[in-house]
């Protein structure tokens, strides 16, 4: 043991890739189309069905189009960095695995622990949102859940457990247990239906666009556009879950960059298209509602299409939850395989090569949080976790270009000394503007993780056991 030096021991790329083969590796069953659908599934959810109205009404007005273009470009900076890493290191764990080879074990653990928080809370927040939407749909058929089981623990409101949140988490956990090939097919179908619903809104809504609603185009000035872009940026961030799938891709060097960047491109086009039609149909001042897309259709008396949009919103949230849960299971698997968490977590079934314990752990975490804990105040922790991961990955690309220029890169970030810097700048700006309470909770989570690493991970990692490493 060499003291502080051991805290930063690194896995070689060869060893990391070796871990993905044989009995310890996941089944390789996905292609570029599946990856694109995972990305679209993660990004197109409440953002397009809710956030479009909020950003237009409060920040950008009709210039929301510019807000989504700016935020999409900013997110593309981070996406390019992820694409380079994913093509070099096709292993589960996403940013956690990348940082293990660049910065060493302690930084990898910090980032992995951070991502556990991000995915865990994201699953819970999205499950709670799904429950709320589904209960609204039930009310349309005259069905009402008893108040006591309709939402998370809040005695003042008479609610104690969110049953519908636990139901959807259990269903998607069962889907994940079927194996990546089968579960990705189900996701593909749901995403295609969701895209169809969004396109239905665009086509029908286009006939009710009044160009006068786009005037004034920039009612809050360019400052409002930038503020709107900062808010809209968070609508894109689910794409990083795509990199969690790299170990299960048949041709990761080619397909990972295609999947990540095409998913972001499709989502950007959909966001901009919906924003153009939405602000053309309804004056932007009326869009500060919980369901702006459905509201716009009701506004022009197209109630039958509004019903389809409500269904699309539920499917949208379902796919977001599915991809978040998938990312969480692969993160637990990768950390367990490295020994920083109990290695039993990474055990695979023989037939489908599915990490059962990782899936059950994800199910338990999402069920407890979404069923019992009101998460409104904790939702920002999802954002700070994601932004932190983006920053580490962006810096890591530059570090590895300097330290290992010899490594073959099937995909390279263009302008490597500019784009990662812009990514860090954009993400750092958003992190600084998060609340003090969010930072405090983030630091407390970080401290707890550090204790767990020093008591368990440091002594039990595969590198501590004498496996191959580089210093």
From TrEMBL:
<feature type="transmembrane region" description="Helical">
    <location>
        <begin position="304"/>
        <end position="327"/>
    </location>
</feature>
<keyword id="KW-0472">Membrane</keyword>
<feature type="transmembrane region" description="Helical">
    <location>
        <begin position="35"/>
        <end position="57"/>
    </location>
</feature>
<feature type="transmembrane region" description="Helical">
    <location>
        <begin position="220"/>
        <end position="239"/>
    </location>
</feature>
<dbReference type="Pfam" id="PF13520">
    <property type="entry name" value="AA_permease_2"/>
</dbReference>
<keyword id="KW-0812">Transmembrane</keyword>
<protein>
    <submittedName>
        <fullName>Amino acid permease</fullName>
    </submittedName>
</protein>
<feature type="transmembrane region" description="Helical">
    <location>
        <begin position="414"/>
        <end position="432"/>
    </location>
</feature>
<feature type="transmembrane region" description="Helical">
    <location>
        <begin position="63"/>
        <end position="83"/>
    </location>
</feature>
<keyword id="KW-1133">Transmembrane helix</keyword>
<feature type="transmembrane region" description="Helical">
    <location>
        <begin position="260"/>
        <end position="284"/>
    </location>
</feature>
<feature type="transmembrane region" description="Helical">
    <location>
        <begin position="381"/>
        <end position="402"/>
    </location>
</feature>
<keyword id="KW-0813">Transport</keyword>
<feature type="transmembrane region" description="Helical">
    <location>
        <begin position="160"/>
        <end position="179"/>
    </location>
</feature>
<feature type="transmembrane region" description="Helical">
    <location>
        <begin position="95"/>
        <end position="112"/>
    </location>
</feature>
<feature type="transmembrane region" description="Helical">
    <location>
        <begin position="356"/>
        <end position="375"/>
    </location>
</feature>
<dbReference type="InterPro" id="IPR002293">
    <property type="entry name" value="AA/rel_permease1"/>
</dbReference>
<feature type="transmembrane region" description="Helical">
    <location>
        <begin position="438"/>
        <end position="456"/>
    </location>
</feature>
<feature type="transmembrane region" description="Helical">
    <location>
        <begin position="191"/>
        <end position="208"/>
    </location>
</feature>
